[in-house]
Amino acid sequence: MARVRRAPRLPHGVPGRALVPQGHGPGGRAAARGGPVTGSVRRALGIVALAIVLAIGCTFAGFWQWQRGEDRERAIRTVIANYTAGPVTLDALLGTPDTPLPAEDAWRPVILEGEYVPGATVLLRNRPVAGTPSFHLLAPFTVTAPGTRFDGAVIVVDRGWIPIGTDASGDVEIPDPPSGTVTLEVRVRPAERVSDRAAPAGQAHSIFPAQVVGSAGLAPEAVVAGAYASLVSESPPPAVVPGLLDAPSTDYGPHRSYALQWWVFALGGLVAFGVIAFREWRGEADDDDVPADDGAPQVTESPTELAAPARTKPASTKPARTKQVRQRRRPTAEEEEDALLDAQEVAQASETRSR
């Protein structure tokens, strides 16, 4: 009876199919380079998008600050040109009492004649002078200008300031303006915006002429609504002279330096976030070239080598692995049967030779 030999068995632990390191076979990590966008690439693109948005915002902020610097420069040129110019009449600057004062005519000296309205001084709040808490004295002044539209009109005059002291409620001694006909030298300025804040009686939060005149309890027929006057001198002088107002500042301010800082932030943000995005993308590229090593061999089957004879790779090409201690195992029933048949064949061969 012919004995059927079993197929030779491979030693324990030797794979029966060819193994290919992950990333080098079809469908491996290397093939993923042309596949869907990975998480690292998405993060890199997000960083780039964030950098662009921040750069655009910083750029616009820089232009905004630069424009503020341009506006400040124009205002300073106006102050320098008008502050020391010769005085003119009120009707030479304003066509009517309701006409707003043009910005290019701010700080122009004007000569006024007329009378202060008695007992109508209004205190302007929250206007410190050189760091000293103070009230400005706003006095309605009736203009005498025969033959002009300003004859009988009321203009608000900022006569100067007095310190608040320890009482900010307005219970302070208010110096009276000169009585009778007075000649004033003033500098006209555009009216401020109306304030929506409530103020005690006889006080105001802004130099909005109609509001100031209303706080004084007056209802004149004509109010110079588009401008007010900043006092330079009074003739005759008053018994008590309030503190004189300071000259306007000609400081250009930090607007242009702020603009340059914003633009530096925009450029620096692009460079910094660009480097971060590049490192994120580069890290993904490096991961594609380095096989993962988590303590166990990462393998994938190559379809082209499934049918090839099993063989062991050269030791020089294998990654270093920690030696594992394996326990001896008991032989299987098939192995015991094969061993018994081999022993019988050897015995029969020996008996035949001895005959």
Can you walk me through this structure?
The protein is an alpha+beta fold. The protein folds into two domains: 15-84 and 252-322; 108-235, OB fold (Dihydrolipoamide Acetyltransferase, E2P) (Beta Barrel). Helices cover 32% and strands 16% of the residues. It contains five helices and nine strands; from the N terminus they run βααββββββαβαβα. The chain has helices at 39-83, 90-93, 209-215, 255-289, 333-354; strands at residues 19-21, 108-116, 122-124, 134-143, 154-163, 182-190, 203-204, 227-235, 299-301. The strands form two sheets. It has a five-stranded mixed barrel. Helix 1 (39-83) runs antiparallel to helix 4. The radius of gyration is 48 Å and the shape is rod-shaped. The two termini are 22 Å apart. Residues 17-35, 299-308 and 321-325 have low confidence and may be disordered.
- Tally of contiguous helical segments: 5
SSE topology string: EHHEEEEEEHEHEH
Side by side, the strands of the main sheet go: 2-4-5-8-6
Beta-sheet strand percentage?
15-25%
Average residue-wise pLDDT = 80
Sketch the major β-sheet.
5 strands, mixed, barrel
How many structural domains does the protein architecture include? 2
End-to-end C-alpha gap: 22 Å
- The helical percent reads 25-40%
Q: What is the 3D shape? A: rod-shaped
In the predicted model, the low-confidence regions spanning at least 5 consecutive residues are 17-35, 299-308, 321-325
Q: What is the count of β-strands? A: 9
User: Oligomeric state of the chains?
Assistant: single chain
Write down the Rg.
Answer: 48 Å
**Structural class by sheet pairing and helices:** alpha+beta
